[in-house]
Design brief:
With 246 residues, this protein is mainly α. Among the domains are: 11-57; 73-126, Arc Repressor Mutant, subunit A (Orthogonal Bundle), CATH 1.10.10; 161-177 and 198-246, no CATH class. The chain contains ten helices and three strands, in the order αααααααααβββα. A three-stranded antiparallel beta sheet has the order 1-2-3, with no helix packed on it. Strand 2 and strand 3 (215-220) form a beta hairpin. The radius of gyration is 29 Å and the shape is elongated.
Length: 246
């Protein structure tokens, strides 16, 4: 007779089990059977609720099945707290910065420890940290002044105008020949050679009124009178808006 396999639950499944018992009011025996574990194991999971909740709040990887205790636990915890604060302030943090900070913490905590690449990889996996590209320029905006202007100044400018008569416009560049900046790869495939990025672009002006009843877009081209805009009144109107070269 074959021995039954021991089933190991992930941290997220531990939390689901706790919610089933405490929130959904399921019996512990029925919950243990649902997750394929023993009654005593389910009871032990309930006793670890505080640790599991703390792991989730620290943005830990809740898909892992065992919590590995690091021999440099104090350094890891201090680094995670620092990293959380750095992200909250919008700081740019790289692998090099993490290792430098870890080295500083080893001195402050009087720990004999040299941050290695393997340690860094395990720390990122344990805390669910990954590299992400920045998008846009939102962190450069003065949100406080913008909100004050919208609240106190903008309403006075709108007085006497219907929403359909209030317009806004902005321009954007379209690199229509550009390829994506990255690609999916098999694990272990280190080939990441890129190609020269084409700089061919179009400049587009997009504008609309406040109630959204009219929306238009104009492309800044090289021809003063493009042949594709010869027929309708709308085409003639768009042609008149095209910026002439020079």
């Amino acid at each position: 007779m074959l021995a039954s396999q021991r089933k190991t639950l992930s941290i997220s499944e531990h939390l689901e089990l706790i919610d089933d018992v405490k929130m959904k009011k399921l019996k512990l025996a029925a919950t243990a059977k649902k997750y394929g574990i023993g009654y005593s194991t389910a009871a032990k999971i309930l006793k670890k609720e505080d640790d599991l909740r703390s792991c989730m709040q620290m943005n830990g990887n809740t898909n892992r099945k065992r919590k590995r205790q690091s021999v440099h636990k104090d350094v890891n915890e201090a680094l995670t707290q620092w990293f959380t604060q750095a992200c909250a302030h919008g700081a740019t943090v790289t692998d090099h910065v993490i290792r430098q900070k870890a080295s500083q913490l080893t001195v402050n905590l009087e720990v004999d420890f040299e941050p290695s690449n393997g340690w860094l990889m395990r720390w990122k996996q344990a805390n669910n940290v990954s590299f992400k590209k920045f998008h846009g320029e939102s962190t450069s905006a003065d949100h406080g002044s913008a909100n004050e202007w919208v609240t106190n100044v903008l309403p006075h400018l709108f007085r006497g105008y219907d929403p359909k008569d209030v317009w806004n416009c902005d321009e954007t560049g379209i690199f229509y020949k550009a390829m994506p900046s990255g690609s999916l790869r098999f694990a272990g495939d280190e080939q990441s050679n890129g190609t020269k990025v084409p700089k061919d672009r179009l400049t587009m002006l997009q504008f609309t009124n406040m109630d959204g009843s009219e929306k238009q877009a104009v492309v800044v081209g090289k021809s003063a009178k493009p042949r594709c805009f010869k027929m309708s009144k709308l085409c003639r109107f768009l042609t008149s808006l095209i910026v002439k070269p020079g």
